[in-house]
Predict the structure.
Amino acid sequence: MHHKKKLSLAIAALFTQVGVHGTAMALEESAENQEAAIERIQVKTRKIAETIETIPLAISAVTSQQIEEKGVQSSEDVAKLINGLTFDIGAGPNDTRPSIRGLTIDRGRPNVAVLIDGIDVSSETMTLSGGGMTANMKLLDMQQVEVVKGPQSVNYGRSAFAGAINYVTKRPGFDTQTKVDVHLAQDSTHDLAVTVEGGLTDKLAAKIKLIDSSSDGQYSNPNSGDLLGGSEAQGAAFSAFYLPTDEISVYFRAEHSDEHYGQRPTFTIRSMLPENTPGNIFATGSVNTAQGAEMLPYAWDANGQAVDCSSAYDYPYWNSFNSIITRMGYPVQPDCRAMVRGTITGDASLIDLSLNPLTGEDYTGTDIKNSRASLEYLWSSDGIEFSSVTGYTKSESDIQEDFDKTDYSLYAAPNLGPAAWSQYGFQADVNTAFELEQYSQEFRLSGETGAVNWVTSALLWQENMRTAFGTQFWLRQGAHEPTVIKTLARSPFTSFIKDIKNAPLPDGQNVVTPLTRDTDHWSVAALVNWAVTDDLNLSFEGRYLDETIDYTGNADNRTYDAFMMDNSVVFDPVTQTMVPNPAYHTSNSIGNTAFLPRASIDYKVNETVFTYASVSKGFKPSGVATTDANGDVTDGVYKPEKLIAYEVGAKAYSLENNASVNLAAFYWKYSDQQTPFTLTNEMGLAVVSVINAGESQVKGIELESVWQVSHNFRLSMAYLYSDAEYTDFNLTNILAEADLAGAKVSDVDKMIAGNADADFSGQPLPLSSKHSGTITGRYSFDIGGAASFVELFGQYRSERNVERAQHTQLPAYWEWDLSAGTQYQAWLVTAYVENLFDDDKIKSAVGNVDFGFFPNGQSVPYAVVATLPQRRTAGIRVSYKF
């Protein structure tokens, strides 16, 4: 009785901290009335068998039951179920951006490692931000998914900067069994999987899984009438589980998949439109006020007073011509630029994807071929365990998409003699192919000596990335090339331009820029867990890593590609001829070493209350930015990124095992985050590059709770408060210390920051929500011997800023899913409705520059590219075993 009262008080205190009252009182119900128990999920996050309730770190899991009932097949599905994990897609389908606890990225390697059976398959694209697409989750036959929060480099290797997602696959069983899974849903969605497994001998079991899936998509491109967001995938996986002795096990797995993804249903909100305001003799267009764009200042007087932008709505970007207009009798125009502001809204009517000029049809989208193989050898005897884990991944992808997501025309008046004019801008595609190979070998040795558990590890990891960067820019329709060239000839920056591409060139004629990145990583790690007493444990962990990244690339600037420039040759004034450019083939090599420690202490208050505290370090190596449309890898070097994470937490569950609660408070200090910034290049054009952004911090609290209210009804809740902001990000100071020849703070960054220094200190991190949560109510019952359930799942996310200074937001939203299922003997049937109330709020968007229209001939306006949400979707999943 004493223990029960003590537990009730402890859990009540935990719930009270987050404002959930009355729950603890319900825990006084007798165990006889609480027959259903909360399952204990075992994990080997630290290479030691532990349960989630007794491991000194924040970890969440998606169980095999959830995977089957909800059809978990992607990282997006996992992110929906795990509070605090978000999964955004940026400018392209391979621009994947998982983040944990609001620690988002703008550029570079994702902060979250992605692993399959403990093998790191994380990557980073070379021409866009974020990670790649190296695994088909439909083939994995998952046992569970573990999501670990906080730096986990010791346990999960090189990429677990702020956390990790580990997909754990099922070993083949020795009982012969065939399983057929069928999924049918609206929009011609079907998934078919056939799994056959069983014992070949009494020591060897094998499994084969075949999949076929397709979906048409929910939206269409009005310019073609074809559907968007469709997908197809076929694949096969084979695995074998061998138990030659009681001490040895061998697990082999191999898979291959062919996948196709159509263009996503996206639309662009532009801050500037080509339609001219009345009396706009410089044809600088008009401000897109209908979609929330405003003119904002980028100049301030000595007292910090911003210029008045009211006249800039009638004469946008005319300040570029102040030396001329004053002689024409116009007043001096203020230093202002256009910015998209407010909450992002939109619907299918805004889709305006251009067709491929070479085919007259929609761009084909993304094609991916993934192959993976892994081998795990495990030997254990007398408290000692040795394992060898080998992994190989090969991924080939080809991306053909509309890059600017628009299909509008510019305006020109070429027949006015000396007064002829033409607007100027580009259209662009994504035309890029990637070939990636990864090799991983890890050896682990673990054991127990008295009160000490220990683990050692040695890891070798290699990646070879080959990129064929064929993205093209060409003059936007409606512009008049001869007039544009005459206009450009008036500037010393652009007077050399004699020709402009009017359409993309076909394969074979288009110059493709080769880029390569070879990564060689080795590291050693150790963990020591000391049981000081029966209730007190100390853990010390550390990984020493050495990583070298070699780059090569041709010094083509894909933006200049529109001007038909050949950077492979230069003019020789001696011979008066064009000769090979000695600086055309470029290379670079970046080396990094680091030691990443982690220390934790945990204390068992009693049999049901567990507390812990930890401090750990995360590290992402330095490298070369290759996302600037420039194949020159001698510049764009960025510094390593570092993270120090502090966390305290408590985990409690009832003696009756009918309620549990996990609570954590954390503070993360992030140094030298990669972030994009705008600079003016040698042509006077504003272009985007990458720089390290001083310091950021993330602080917050996280709660997960489960309450078995009655034998039939379970209530699960999760909540995250995350305050993520830049604490020291002054772009003027950073550029003054950086080795960037001629770089200066752009008007765009001053305008977005709202100050002359482009100081973003105190601003929230982009795409980071302050509040998020999930709630699940599940009612279980029996019908004629069939175990059945009805479940309502809700996900909440507060508003997120699209850029760095709170101008543009994604709206807050609730989204609800309803499912019901029944299992009888060999049958499992689940019907569901996702997005039950057909919420149409925009949930994903990224800020970008708009190369489509240069209002003053050189400034690049701001734009937002948004993805339309999944509409209400009904479907059914049927599984049969025999």
